[in-house]
Structures are given as C-alpha cells and as structure tokens.
C-alpha cells in the first residue's frame, strides 16, 4: 500500500534524533509493549508480514501521532481482535470471557528466540535473473502489503546477489500462503534514484523479489 | 503528548512534572493485565523477553563478531562468505538474524544500513534498534541524503569515498564491519570488541578510536545497554 510507512526519500522530517546514552527501553511500558507483541505472536495466529501490514494499516494520522511502540501495540490489538484472541468487549471491560493456556512459557523464550523464523524455502522454479543482470523494478502500486518501496519503482538496477527463494510478504501478509519467490539484492545508483544532484559514486541496494522485477534492456 | 517517549526524556531534571502515568503506559498496563488474566501470555515469558533484550542480546554480540573478523582472517572470510553461519558459530542465532550479510568498510567505501519501510534491524547481533534508527528522519533521509545524515553523526566523507546504503526490504539483515582502528596491533580480541560501537555496526560512525573509554558510542548506560558484553 502507498502508505506513510513507505517514507524513503521523503523530506520534512527534520534532523536525526540522536540521543546519547540511550537506554534499551526508555520506559517500562515500552519494554512491555515489545514483550507482549513477541509473546502474542507465539499463538501463530499471524505471521511477521501480517504484523507489519497491521502497523501499516494504522491510519496515517495515528501512525504519525504514535511513537514506535504505540504502533506496535496498535497493530497488536487489531490483530488480536481480527483473529478472535481478544474481543472488543474484553478490551473494554478488562474481563476475560474464558481462560486459556499461553503457548509461550518463560522457560521457552531463549529457545524460541534462538530458533527464529527462517524464511528461505526451496522451490522448483529456476531463477530468472543472475548476478550481473540489469533489471527494472516494476511500477507496482498494490493496495495490500508489499516490500517494494515507491522510490525504487520504475528504476533500473543491477542484480548483485541471488538469495534463493524467500517467503513473499505480499502473499504471506494476507493469508494467501508463503508463495516463496526468488529474492535478489539489486543495486541502484544514487543518480538513477535521485537524479543528477546525487553523488556519482553512491548507491542504494534493496532486497527485491523476482515478481517485483523485469529484465531491462538498459 | 510529551510523555509518549518520542522526545528525549530528561533524566534527573528539576522541571515540575506530574506523576500521572502517560496514556500509553496506562493502555499497555491495561492490555497486559487482560492478556495475563485470560491466559494469553505467561508473565514469566514477558519478564524473560525483557531481560533478554535488556541484558543478554545487544551490540556486545556484534562487537565480538567484528573484533574476531579483525584478528582472524579465516573467520573474516567466512563472515563475508556466509555471515549467518559465521555468526551462528559464535552462538548468535535466531529472531531477526535468520539471514545475515556482513558488509565491510574500507578506506574507499562506507556502508550504511536502513529500513525505510519499518525498522528491520539485526537483533541477534545488535539487539533492539535505537530511537534514531526507527525515526522518520533517518528512514526517509538515509536513502536520498546519506552523506547529510552521516554528517549529523559527525561523519564527513570526501566525495572519493563511495557510500553504499542497504535498505533492509526483505528478511536479510545487514551488519557493517567497521575498519580496525590504527595502532591496535597486538590488542586482544576482547579489548578490540570494546572499541566497536553500536553505531559503527550500522554505519552511522566510521572512525573508531583506540581509546577504550569510548565503548560502544551510546553505551555509557552500561548496566542496560552493555549487559554482559565481556561475559
């Protein structure tokens, strides 16, 4: 979706808010927001792509008003309601309608984190591109989830790495399956992306799925 | 609005303030209470997750990876060839580090990592991202004005140094290997790790000093940020 989250290349956000002696968490509630989000994911009612999409679907106004962990909590609450883990009545009353058994126990946390969730998959389809190929990022404007930023659409770059097939977020975020697709690192020159005022030496490299790309004659 | 954590919290100030909890603090407390009461989350899991990222998983991990790459050429080659496996060999695996790539700075090349679409970050080696990495300013500007961004971090690059920006659009996570500081020949791997700052492993810092008091840049809040970095 062409949302506010897709902010690469935008102007107007001011200087970088560099904080010295920054703690890992500024407040207890931020730490809790992080932990609740990860713990609730253990129910496996949604995947990481869907949780990112949930944050993107916050209203533009909320997205900009919310701080980072408020976005997490905002996305989490919506996901819990959508998947019937929590009802609106329960959120309003604070009283559960039934008691359940949490899938993630304190003793499981270290193993769960160390396992992670690899997204590489083996597929039969041969890769369409090889390292060194010139490719164009397609001008795609889906209303759903995608990881092709606006600033790269229609731009020409060079494949610098092939990573095999990875789960496709566009599909996985909306329950249409993992649809593993070949993934490439594609390097775009800064001038291709931003025009003649950009440094001639600089570049931006993005990890892009094959379905975002087409062969370029350039 | 000033209590939401967006702005830098003032520590030890004498400004008048209220003890009324912030709105998000109340909301999260209410949510936590309901989720625990319903049996959706185990409070011990919440504690374990916070403890892990406050003390166990953080930039001290990445610093050890970088230091080893400086002293062990075989490890460096393995790291550049298959960072996921090389980093796993040091015990750092899992969530938000499942697919790692290490990119090395050189005298002619500087790497900078960003996630313009959200806040993707190599948690296994750097822990939780700092506020600036997650900020709209960094996410918007790193790709269009990396040199301007770097200048705000005090890194001024001449035009003959190439800047490579890596936008973390998939599940591949990037670790920048900064250059080894001059004059550190013979320094132990553990002492070298103490020179490696978090920001340098994102690319927001370039020249690491040889002064061991300048550990991990923003890491003076040692008990939280550094955890058991020598452990």
Q: Which CATH class of the largest domain in chain A?
A: Mainly Beta
Strand pairing plus helix content of chain B: what structural class? Answer: alpha/beta
Overall body shape of chain A: globular
Strand order of the largest sheet of chain B: 1-4
Shape of chain B: globular
Query: Which fold name fills CATH's third level, the topology of the largest domain in chain A?
Result: SH3 type barrels
Using only C-alpha atoms, the radius of gyration of chain B works out to 19 Å
For the record, give the distance between the C-alpha atoms at the N and C termini of chain A, rounded to a whole number: 28 Å
What name goes with the CATH superfamily of chain B?
Nitrile hydratase alpha /Thiocyanate hydrolase gamma
> What would the CATH topology of chain B be?
Nitrile Hydratase, Chain A
Percent of residues in helices of chain A comes to 25-40%
How many strands in all of chain A?
6
How many helical stretches of chain A? 8
- Radius of gyration of chain A, rounded? 20 Å
Number of domains of chain B: 1
SSE sequence of chain A, one letter per element: HHHHHHEEEHEHEE
> Which segments of chain A are poorly predicted (pLDDT under 50) over 5 or more consecutive residues?
none
Q: How would you describe what is shown here?
A:
The complex is a heterodimer of chains A (218) and B (231). Chain A is of the alpha+beta class and 218 residues long. Chain A folds into 2 domains: 88 residues, Nitrile hydratase, beta subunit (Cyclin A, domain 1); 96 residues, Roll (SH3 type barrels). In chain A, 30% of the residues lie in helices and 17% in strands. In chain A, strands 1, 2, 3, 4, 5 and 6 form a 6-stranded antiparallel β-sheet that branches. In chain A, helix 1 runs parallel beside helix 4 and helix 2 packs across helix 4. Chain A is globular and about 60 Å long. With 231 residues, chain B is an alpha/beta fold. Chain B has one domain: Alpha-Beta Complex (Nitrile Hydratase, Chain A), CATH 3.90.330.10. In chain B, the strands form 2 sheets. Chain B has a two-stranded parallel sheet with strand order 1-4. A two-stranded parallel sheet of chain B has the order 2-3. In chain B, helix 3 packs across helix 4. Chain B is globular, with a radius of gyration of 19 Å. The termini of chain B are far apart. The chains are: A alpha+beta (218), B alpha/beta (231). The interface between A and B is large, with 100 and 89 residues. Strand 5 of chain A pairs parallel with strand 3 of chain B, so a sheet runs across the interface.
